[in-house]
Amino acid sequence: MTEPLLSVRGLTKDFQVGTVFSRRRVRAVNDVSFDLPAGRITALVGESGSGKSTIARCLARLEQPSAGQVLLDGEDVLRTERRRASRAYRRKVQMVFQDPFGSLNPVHRIEHFLTRALVLHGHSATPEALRELMTTVGLTEDMLQSYPHELSGGQRQRVSIARALAVEPRLILADEPTSMLDVSVRVGVLNLMRRLRDERNIAMLYITHDLGSARYLADTTMVMFAGELVEGGDALAVMDAPAHPYTRLLLSAVPDPERAGSYDPVERAKLREAILNPTSCPYGDDGTCSRTEPVRHIVGEDDGQPHWVRCHLRAPASDIARRVLKATDRPDGEATDDTDATEKAETTAA
Amino acid sequence: MEPVLEVNGLRVEYRGDGRTVVGADDVSFSIGAGEVFGLAGESGCGKSTIANAVMRLLKPPAEITAGSIRFQGRDVLALDARELRAFRWREIAMVFQSAMNSLNPVLTVGEQIVDIFTTHERMKKRAARERAGELLELVGIDPGRLKAYPHQLSGGMRQRVVIAMAVALRPRLLIMDEPTTALDVVVQQEIMAQIRDLQRELGFSILFITHDMSLMVELSDRMGVMYGGRIVELADAKDLFAHPLHPYTEALMNAFPPLTGPRQELTGLFDAPRTADSCGFHVRCPEDRSDCSTNIPDLREVAPGRWVARSGAHSPEGASR
Questions:
Q1: DSSP labels for A145-157?
Q2: What ipTM was reported for this prediction?
Q3: Which fold has domain B5-100+172-308?
Q4: Fewest beta carbons within 10 Å, which of B93, B135, B194, B288?
């Protein structure tokens, strides 16, 4: 595969919550790494509160990550631009928000939004440029004179996309762009995103909790749970052969009359436990995850894309043995050198 | 068996200056005791108009110009203001679309639930508080949360509180207008399970409104698909999903990307609004549509319990399973 446009390495974001007296930290995103290649749509799925929007906000530079690197064309933008994003960054990375009713100022005409985006980023706002933007997103030229309230939700979301396109970005971050739209226009917006990917070679991060649309639209899907990525790979492979228990639960929650009743509340209760205590995964038979954190295991490959999962249950047998040994080798309260333990385990396994 | 709710030939018009929009046109359906009846359709198809008409919540410029609504034999449209006060909530309760935001942010959840009992049942505060606690337990929330303000609860919990409040007075019919639209899939599934449990326990009927066909089929016994203010198909929910007879039903089902099968291009719903004298959707229909050119045809029964608004030229293959 070609060099990724944007790489995220070890992204972590903590929020401080509570009053002065009861301040504590909540880790919204924990050590997340992934690549966004040009011309591909990467979906990030997960339930509310899993941290997927925080990732988008970090990449849009609306939040300052607590740790990690964001590499755009190989350069760590967090290092070179410490606080806010530069205009040069925004020229490459644009965002489309969830709420098309809140993201367009009601006192301006559509023309204003597009003109402003063009001019701010050094393009000239010629009538041809405006017309081209409008037709690209499937709107008519006369809508330039409309106010946001005169347009439907779907049309407004198209304006948001046109505004993002005005700067000719190389990456679009779309945070639930269709969840507030009516069914009648949802597919239209998805198809538009797909066309932009194909025609303009734009990379997209598509954040959603609608698994069906992720399967429909994305090339790659990543599943997020409690601030961590737990599974990733080809969009069809992840949905059709989910390897992580959480992905399976998420899929079973999608209403589908053909397999009604597959959702298991007991599984759900286990997951709740895991959210409250993020260091323990509830699925290991012997609680392996509560002792050691799972690492990525490759479980398959589709179209040259590895399908990986972070789960002990899918680890190769020797791997599991190593981890269990490593964990049991460590007496309580006594710090053992990790490499030491691993070496010991390896010799035992051999 | 006598139906709980019977809507017959209902027509609702929104009257503006010089222009009238028909919100619902010749809508007829009935809901039996303990039955879950679903109404599906895109925004603007009139499904919420129906719900508001049944609750008598329509305000000018909306006007009911024809038809009848009978609830357990009583004429709902004839109720006066005093009767309505007793009728709403006690007989029919409604969970609104943005129910999560319909809680008062400056009152605790407990105060708001207690309010129902003190106002409608003239209960003493202490007894009401006890009932409020039981009610929260019923929807799986710790009664200790009575002291919580709405913003201290998650979206899913707020939605449960609102549902608990709706069933507080044991209504015979619960109207739910897109109860889970703003929630993610996992929470949505929990809420749906909750609703099913409550319904089993309390035995009320449900009028369930949503645009999500899959969700609807999972919950409903029978369902109607609305388009442009008219019901275009009415049938047993599973039948309808397995063999849609109306092209609009099919289009609505295909508006959601599926979770299985090969990935294929979807077209979504057609963006042609219905005008006063044409269906609007008919441009999309493949078959003979000679009697659709002026309006959506009337519903015809093509098999027992299976109604579809389509011209008579073709046979209902698949309808008779």
A1: G--GGGS-HHHHH
A2: 0.75
A3: Rossmann fold (3.40.50)
A4: B288
